[in-house]
Design brief:
Distance between the termini of chain A: 37 Å
Strand order of the largest sheet of chain B: 1-2-3-4
Bound molecules: iron/sulfur cluster
Largest sheet of chain B: 4 strands, parallel
Shape of chain A: globular
Strand order of the largest sheet of chain A: 1-2-5-4-3
Order of helices and strands of chain B: HEHEHEHEHH
Distance between the termini of chain B: 19 Å
Radius of gyration of chain A: 24 Å
Number of helices of chain A: 21
Strand content of chain B: 5-15%
Shape of chain B: globular
Structural class of chain B: alpha/beta
Oligomer: heterodimer
Helix content of chain A: 40-55%
Largest sheet of chain A: 5 strands, mixed
Strand content of chain A: 15-25%
């Protein structure tokens, strides 16, 4: 009965307009055969792909495709469903190349198949786990989608929305015109690669699993990583070189996959908080914030103003320390050793300050549902002011020492061209997008917390190259200082406590529902999707990591560059590998 | 060649020394202890604290261990700083095997010690402790350990190599109950080739 219902919803193209609850402007149900058309339409209308989430419910596997528009402040979710016995979706990687990785990740975690996927190999899991799907729910653990979103919440879609009217047209135009090929064995088979492009894999050779040889014998296949200093962790990039030129660069992920999404389902809402300090340990508080925001939306918790201000201040301090580390490490990649010493000097000051209030130096777990764990000490404002003043005085020195240095400029100017269209297709956000000349920042475009009361600017550079991305981050540090100072001024007047009264305790169970919260992290848009069936543990947690999308454009961006420039591009993306692998 | 099974431990046998005499060994040990070359082997969060330890404030160079080498062939101390996933495990074993002996391993952080926060029932992705793969000399707990912790771990390795502690204890700390004498016991009898690492 219920199964019929969801399929009928899908057919009748109802939608949830649930911005307040789920952070989506609009969500449209669609038959899966129409996905590719819908994606093409979205691209044409200028939407960027955020992520592709799967949700395993008793009706089937629900696919959620989230899109954002940079100017229109519109977040759209296209939902579709595939029954368990033919779990198969059409791939939209042909339209949005960024979907490639999202779909591969989903194939790792769920027993689904994406038809016509260009490269259906495991992404995050080791090859010998190809048959295991860690996020697949057992039959008895599955709940109906209507237990998560109660039926009465479905309301008629505002049919003025572009997507809805188009979707309606799509619905009437095509009915079972293109039946899907739902053959699970299609996974891991790559039929369309010419035979002479495949390398004979010797059994037991541990690095040669995804290699292909080229037509010409003098091309060199080079492994960068997983242990390589300029990949900032354990990223592995398979490079195919012709002399010094990169013919093909393929990042191989999963070397630090830490099961965060699985842990979301086995831990309670509270127990999951420490994980948020470890997804992206350089900007841990942004993840804290995103997860808390999502759960607060779910449980309808209002956060006191003082807590919001403390959140903003600590978040920006954390952003400063993250950018400082990026700055030092990037220059280290490019061969300059001294700057990182300066960067760490300032970073240590910030960490000392954050340590006082959060209790740790790096993997903060400071935000809780309804506020922050403890109030700031009396001298906090004074100390923070003096630290940011020192940093502000030092920024011109950084510019004089490094930014104006000719050697640096030669290494970053006109290197790694990433234009807005590429960002849109791959879903790149953060400084990468702003370095492509698009003024999109979640803090500004869909303000959360108290950002809308503060006066700051979004640095945008139009060069599309590594230098623009560099300059965006340098300017962002100055803006963060501005934000911190304003928020400190406001903090004196806000004395409604650092956490709500009757804050949720460890046994906290939010009502059933789903929520999506996005915040601006140091690397881009961080999104957390939480679905709850009213139990003690989240039913599903999806983490949208900005680095994941930013890295996915590396292959296209690095093609044809010199090897040394590929390193420069990689550094300019500011990667944190555990965040990408999650 | 590193074996396919991620849980196959590394080969740890070492050839005997060319000049096997106690006084020579003592001098060599001291030199080794005071100029350890760690490998730049950042896996996750703990690696950031490892970087911090190398920077001006904590200044690992004071203790002779600042030459972070990106290549295992040039280093003799492997600081496993972070979570070892099953996919990474063969690479860890291979890196260890590529390091020239004598070599030491420090497990930095709870992840490298036991899986840390990522150990839960039904976990599918990580190795619960790097000592399942390579022999570990010193465990430094913390999530992440502070840079001071890393330095203390380094002192312990130096103590393990030379048989005595070289740096003063922080104020208010008791010397470890074992004391320097028992460090002698841990050390192989003179004349044996290897100090820090016995074939296991
Ligand atoms: S021990 Fe903690 S800080 Fe270190 S790698 Fe593991 S989670 Fe990160």
């Amino acid at each position: 009965m219920r199964e019929d219902l969801i399929f009928s919803y899908e057919r009748e193209n109802r939608a949830v307009v649930d911005d307040h609850v789920s952070g989506q402007g609009c969500s449209v149900y669609m038959d899966r055969t129409r996905l590719a058309d819908a994606a093409a339409m979205m691209l044409e209308a200028g939407y960027a792909l955020d992520d592709i989430t799967l949700l395993d419910v008793s009706e089937g596997i629900q696919g959620q495709y989230r899109f954002t528009h940079w100017d229109k402040q519109d977040r759209v979710t296209i939902r579709t469903i595939a029954p368990h016995d033919e779990a198969c979706f059409p791939s939209i990687a042909g339209v949005y190349p960024g979907a490639d990785w999202h779909e591969r990740e989903n194939m790792d975690f769920y027993p689904v198949n994406y038809e016509d996927h260009p490269n259906p190999t495991p992404l995050l899991l080791p090859d010998d786990m190809a048959e295991e799907h860690p996020l697949e729910k057992r039959e008895k653990d599955r709940v109906s989608y209507f237990d998560i979103v109660p039926g009465q919440k479905f309301i008629e879609c505002d049919s003025d929305h572009m997507l809805c009217s188009c979707a309606l047209n799509l619905h009437s135009a095509k009915k079972d015109e293109f039946p899907l090929r739902c053959i699970p064995e299609l996974r891991f088979k790559q039929p369309d690669m010419p035979a002479n492009m495949r390398l004979e894999v010797e059994d037991g050779d541990f690095y040669s699993k995804h290699f292909e040889t080229t037509y010409s014998d003098d091309r060199l296949v080079l492994n960068m990583g997983p242990q390589h200093p300029s990949t900032h962790g354990v990223l592995r990039v398979v490079l195919e070189l012709d002399g010094e030129y990169v013919i093909r660069a393929e990042p191989v992920l999963g070397y630090i996959h830490r099961m965060h999404e699985k842990m979301g389902e086995v831990k309670t809402f509270h127990q999951y908080l420490p994980n948020m300090g470890r997804v992206d340990y350089l900007h841990a508080l942004a993840w804290n914030h995103a997860y808390c925001l999502a759960v607060e939306k779910l449980a309808d918790i209002e956060v006191p103003r003082r807590a919001e201000l403390i959140r903003v201040i600590t978040n920006e301090l954390n952003r400063l320390s993250s950018h400082l580390l990026w700055w030092g490490a990037y220059l280290l990649d490019l061969g300059a050793f001294t700057p990182i010493m300066y960067a760490f000097e300032d970073r240590e000051r910030i960490m000392d300050l954050l340590q006082v209030i959060t209790g740790s130096r790096l993997t903060y777990c400071y935000f809780v549902f309804g506020g922050v764990t403890c109030d700031v000490p009396g001298d906090f404002a004074e100390r923070t002011r003096s630290i940011v003043h020192t940093l502000r005085d030092r920024l011109p020195m950084f510019t004089a020492l490094v930014t104006e240095n000719l050697i640096l400029r030669k290494r970053v100017e006109d290197i790694g061209v990433i234009d807005p269209s590429m960002c849109r297709r791959y879903g790149a956000t953060g400084p990468v997008l702003r370095g492509a000349g698009v003024a999109y920042d979640v803090r500004m475009n869909s303000p959360y917390s108290v950002y809308d009361e503060l006066d700051f600017e979004i640095p945008v550079y139009d060069g599309h190259d590594a230098m623009s991305r560099y300059m965006v981050r340098m300017d962002e540090m100055a803006e963060s200082i501005k934000i911190i100072e304003q928020a400190l001024d406001l903090l004196d007047g806000a004395d409604d406590g650092h956490i709500i009264k009757k804050a949720p305790n460890a046994g906290f169970t939010p009502p059933s529902g789903e929520a999506y919260a996005a915040v601006e992290g140091a690397r881009g848009k961080i999104g957390v999707y939480v679905a709850s069936d009213g139990g003690k543990k989240p039913y599903r947690v999806k983490l949208r990591a900005p680095g994941f999308s930013n890295l996915s454009l590396f292959a296209e961006c690095a093609q044809g560059t010199l090897l040394a420039d590929a390193v420069s591009i990689l550094g300019s993306l500011d990667l944190v590998i555990p965040e990408i692998d999650r | 060649m590193a074996p396919q099974n991620p849980l196959t431990p590394a080969v740890t046998t070492v050839d005997s020394a060319m000049i096997a005499s106690a006084p020579v060994q003592k001098v060599v040990d001291l030199c080794r202890a005071m100029s350890l070359w760690p490998m730049t082997f950042g896996l996750a969060c703990c690696a950031i604290e490892m970087m911090a330890a190398g920077m001006a404030r904590f200044d690992m160079a004071r203790f002779g261990a600042e030459v972070f080498r990106p290549s295992p062939r040039q280093s003799d101390l492997m600081i496993v700083a972070g979570t070892v996933s099953k996919k990474m495990a063969p690479a860890v074993v291979r890196l260890y095997e590529q390091m020239p002996a004598p070599k030491w391993v420090m497990a930095l952080g709870n992840c490298a010690i036991s899986g840390g926060p990522f150990k839960f029932k039904g976990q599918y992705g990580i190795i619960e402790g790097v000592d399942q793969l390579v022999p570990v000399d010193v465990y430094v707990p913390g999530c992440p350990p502070r840079p001071e912790g890393l330095l203390e771990g380094l002192f312990q390795i130096q103590e393990k190599i030379t048989g005595r502690r070289w740096w003063p204890l922080p104020e208010g700390f008791e010397p470890s109950p074992a004391g320097p004498d028992s460090a002698e016991v841990r050390k192989p009898a003179s004349g044996e080739p290897e100090t820090g690492k016995e074939g296991s």
